[in-house]
């Protein structure tokens, strides 16, 4: 029996839904065009929506929408934070920096709320064991508050040890606040964080992914790794809380970079945490970080810059472009994943072609098969432009480091890829110091001695199948 006889209004319903569907696709295309994004990206989304309407619409819901302009904190609360943290103005023109770095300081001041801090002492950790030992000692010594934020908080030996300390400190009356990324820590048992909360720790997921909010939250992750203790000690870098940095797995422990900071800049880390905490709907954090002890012997100048999909500018991407484009002698980069946007790729190539010493260090064995393939697709064009590429051999290289000339260095949570620059909430320390730059140069050179330099003639010998797969994966690099 014909369907129309069973459901007399089936054709009418079909026509109505068809019209609504077409209207939805047309409106979506209109939204994409009206956002005035990169024309290549906009055209790509429009093409997908026209050729594959249903699949394209689903992909756009999850990966295509923009959060730019979304306010993370109200103007009133921002003023309250400014009053608490006492970000004193600095005469940038009188700083003992090169003209290029003075200009960079001014740029960051316009991009990010915290300003330049002159008096800081930095301890550098390149291995997980000493970093976690020092972190646990600092946590155990806390007397007023602990603010801790990590993308991944594993339910393993390291994770449970830190959890025990946090619960113990909370029961002693110390205020303990924890932010973990819901997707980054999604595979772990919910009882892990429930135990924290039962012990008095205020532990909450950032942008919790639920079925109702799946499309709204899946693509935007909080990738920051921050700790602030009593307003006097801060941590920022690339290490998550996980055993892989201490005991490794199938390979040696992961190689990463993390900083322990004492000095003025701790207030800026606290500011970044406070904004994220408020964005989650929690009460504004108004801890008195002005109690930081001043240390005149600590001379590392520093800025803390946060970046995320809600900002008008891709803050850290803009900082990288400016710093690299002004390089005179060298640009050294360590990153676990190399998926640069066009601007960053061009500025690296331009620097190398201008006889600047540009070195790029990547892991030989990437923890992500797809990201490893996508990163490899950029190697040839980098080599053609005289960029020196090294594959780190001993273990997974998870370090995120940029060295420019002899005075500037930055490290933090930001990978050299689309996701970090455009979709993730990230945080980096920008350090203006010849002594710190020299320390990190020695770290880079030590890693280089454990790496293999890639030669173009050898790289071209890869199989056609391998090259084809790399090129295909590169097409989806912006959403990896």
Describe what you observe in this structure:
The chain is of the alpha/beta class and 480 residues long. It has 3 domains: 3-64, no CATH class; 75-101 and 119-300, 2-Layer Sandwich (Endonuclease, Chain A), CATH 3.30.870.10; 315-479, Endonuclease, Chain A (2-Layer Sandwich), CATH 3.30.870.10. Helix content is 43%, strand content 18%. It contains 19 helices and 17 strands. The chain has helices at residues 3-6, 10-34, 39-51, 53-64, 75-85, 99-111, 128-140, 157-171, 190-198, 214-217, 266-279, 315-325, 342-353, 369-376, 379-384, 418-423, 434-449, 456-459, 464-475, and strands at 120-125, 145-150, 175-181, 202-206, 226-229, 233-237, 258-263, 301-307, 330-334, 338-339, 357-363, 388-392, 401-404, 408-412, 416-417, 426-432, 451-453. The strands form 3 sheets. It has an 8-stranded mixed beta sheet, with helices on both faces. A 7-stranded mixed beta sheet has the order 1-7-6-5-2-3-4, with helices on both faces. A hairpin with a 3-residue loop joins strand 5 (226-229) and strand 6. Helix 7 runs parallel beside helix 8. The longest helix has 25 residues, at 10-34. The radius of gyration is 24 Å and the shape is globular. 42% of the residues are buried. The model has no long low-confidence stretch (mean pLDDT 85).
């Amino acid at each position: 029996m014909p369907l129309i006889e069973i459901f007399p209004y089936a054709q009418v319903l079909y026509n109505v839904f068809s019209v609504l569907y077409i209207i939805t696709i047309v409106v979506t295309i209109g939204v994409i065009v009206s956002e005035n994004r990169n024309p290549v990206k906009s055209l790509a989304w429009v093409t997908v929506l026209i050729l594959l309407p249903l699949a394209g619409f689903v992909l756009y819901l999850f990966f295509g929408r923009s959060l730019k302009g979304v306010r993370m904190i109200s103007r009133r609360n921002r003023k309250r934070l400014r009053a608490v943290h006492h970000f004193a103005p600095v005469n940038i023109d009188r700083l003992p920096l090169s003209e290029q770095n003075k200009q960079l300081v001014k740029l960051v001041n316009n991009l990010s709320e915290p300003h330049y801090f002159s008096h800081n002492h930095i301890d550098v950790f390149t291995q997980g064991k000493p970093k976690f030992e020092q972190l646990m000692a600092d946590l155990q010594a806390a007397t007023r508050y602990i603010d801790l934020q990590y993308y991944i908080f594993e339910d393993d030996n390291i994770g449970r040890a830190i959890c025990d300390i946090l619960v113990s400190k909370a029961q002693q009356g110390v205020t303990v606040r924890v932010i973990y990324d819901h997707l980054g820590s999604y595979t772990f048992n919910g009882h892990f964080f429930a135990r924290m909360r039962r012990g008095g720790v205020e532990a909450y997921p950032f942008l919790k992914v639920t079925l109702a909010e799946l499309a709204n939250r899946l693509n935007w992750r909080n990738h920051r790794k921050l700790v602030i203790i009593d307003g006097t000690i801060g941590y920022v870098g690339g290490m998550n809380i996980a055993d892989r940095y201490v005991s490794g797995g199938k390979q040696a422990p992961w190689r990463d970079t993390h900083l322990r900071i004492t000095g003025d800049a701790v207030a800026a880390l606290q500011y970044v945490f406070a904004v994220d905490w408020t964005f989650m709907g929690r009460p504004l954090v108004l801890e008195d970080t002005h109690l930081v002890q001043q240390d005149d012997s600590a001379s590392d100048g520093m800025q803390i810059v946060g970046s995320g999909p809600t900002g008008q500018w891709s803050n850290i991407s803009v900082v990288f472009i400016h710093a690299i484009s002004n390089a005179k002698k060298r640009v050294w980069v360590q990153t676990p994943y190399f998926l640069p946007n066009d601007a960053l790729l061009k500025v690296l190539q331009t620097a190398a072609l201008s006889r600047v010493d540009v070195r790029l260090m990547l892991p030989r064995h990437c923890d992500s098969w797809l990201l490893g393939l996508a990163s490899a697709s950029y190697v040839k064009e980098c080599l053609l432009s005289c960029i020196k590429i090294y594959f780190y051999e001993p273990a997974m290289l998870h370090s995120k480091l940029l060295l420019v000339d002899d005075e500037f260095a930055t490290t933090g949570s930001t990978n050299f890829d689309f996701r970090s620059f455009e979709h993730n909430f990230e945080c980096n320390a920008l350090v203006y110091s010849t002594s710190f730059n020299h320390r990190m140069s020695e770290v880079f050179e030590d890693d280089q001695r454990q790496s293999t330099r890639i030669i173009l003639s050898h790289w071209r010998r890869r199989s056609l199948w391998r090259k084809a797969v790399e090129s295909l994966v590169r097409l989806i690099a912006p959403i990896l």
